[in-house]
Design brief:
- This protein has three domains: 112 residues, Immunoglobulins (Immunoglobulin-like), CATH 2.60.40.10; 106 residues, Immunoglobulin-like (Sandwich); 81 residues, Immunoglobulin-like.
- It contains four helices and 21 strands.
- The strands form six sheets. The chain has a four-stranded antiparallel sheet.
- The longest helix has 23 residues.
- It is elongated, with a radius of gyration of 40 Å.
- The N and C termini lie far apart (109 Å).
Length: 358
């Protein structure tokens, strides 16, 4: 038990000194000084070559007798046996003279950059607010088949009352957050999500973040996102799902939809469109497919070429099964024809056998 306590103590001391060591700069970490017990102090240290080219450092000395910092005279050290590559670090040797040596005299060394590096900012507390993420995000199924998302303001943010704005985003598990649907809400900690906006038989995740609303008199940025909540939508019929189209603003309207994996081996889906209500319906081709692991749907898509358009242009698109047809010539596929051919083959075979043994 005693050995265990000693081990824990040594481990804690190691961690403390390790953290302190990490926070030291390279010059301070490599600084070494000694005196000749007479009048001279010699120090060696090094700095990174790139840092030296950008700012450069000077070494200063003081002690508890003379508290004024005194710059030490340093010369660049050039040695052939340095372990570090010569173009990676710059090594220095510094010397200084002092009249104060003896017990009770402590020398204090510090480095100063040759350039002033600082940044200042006046902070108005109420104009730079970032609340903590919302808490207790949950999803429940309603009797109507819709879903209700609820959450609450983080502890410590209740002082803003109902003056918080929220952004709620949700997506299917296999989608990226960049493609997630998003909604901005004010003065509420709940959201009614219609089942019409969801794809049946899918797994969804949602998250929410908050920021001060205009009514609060505060301003700032969004909090970090809350912990995610997940839920699954029930299976539905076999109809194509999630039909959506995006125009690139130039010459192409790209439409995508989803169909059940289990049925695409038996039926083919096509995309049909009309550029105007009076236009003849056309079929888009080719249809591309994207298969996703662990997802019961296949994403199909097709690009519709767009030529003449205006701000009033409105395409009508439809996804439906295609009728497949195959032409078979009846006289070449008659059951009687096949029987006759079989009879001819057997007859010729029999005659050939009799001729062989006669």
């Amino acid at each position: 038990m005693i050995m265990k306590e000693i081990f824990i103590l040594l481990l804690n001391l190691y961690l403390v000194f390790s953290v302190q060591d990490i926070r030291e700069s390279i010059p301070m970490k490599n600084l070494s000084c000694y005196n000749d017990y007479n009048s001279q102090v010699t120090c060696t240290w090094m700095e990174h070559a790139e840092a030296h080219a950008l700012i450069g450092m000077t070494l200063h000395q003081r002690n508890n007798v003379i508290t004024e910092n005194k710059e030490m005279l340093c010369k660049r050290q050039i040695e052939n046996d340095l372990r570090e590559a010569p173009d990676m670090y710059v090594h220095w040797v510094c010397r200084n003279t002092t009249d104060y040596f003896g017990i009770g005299v402590n020398d204090i060394y510090s480095f100063k950059p040759n350039k002033v590096l600082q940044a200042e900012l006046n902070v108005d507390l109420f104009q730079n607010v970032q609340t903590l993420p919302p808490q207790n995000l949950s999803v429940s199924l309603m009797r109507s088949g819709d879903f209700l998302l609820t959450w609450k303001a983080a502890d410590g943010s209740q002082g803003l009352g109902n003056a918080l704005e929220y952004e709620v985003t949700y997506r299917r598990e296999w989608e990226s957050w960049e493609k997630a649907a998003s909604l901005l809400l004010s003065n509420t900690t709940r959201w009614h999500l219609s089942r019409e906006d969801l794809v049946p038989g899918s797994s969804y995740v949602a998250r929410v973040r908050a920021r001060p609303g205009r009514a609060s008199g505060f301003s700032g940025q969004y909090s970090e996102w809350s912990l995610e909540a997940s839920w699954e939508t029930p299976e539905d019929d076999l109809q194509p799902k999630n039909l959506r189209c995006l125009f690139n603003g130039a010459d192409r309207l790209t439409c995508s939809w989803e169909v059940k994996k289990a049925i695409i081996t038996s039926v083919l889906f096509g995309l049909f469109f009309r550029a105007t209500p009076a236009s003849v319906e056309e079929e888009c081709s080719p249809v591309h497919e994207k298969f996703l692991l662990h997802v019961p749907y296949v994403v199909q898509s097709c690009e519709i070429p767009v030529s003449n358009y205006s701000s009033q242009s409105q395409y009508h698109v439809s996804v439906r099964t295609k009728t497949e047809e195959k032409v078979i010539e009846a006289h070449k596929n008659s059951e009687l024809l096949w029987c006759f051919l079989l009879l001819v083959v057997v007859s010729w075979t029999g005659l050939a056998w009799l001729g062989k043994w006669s």
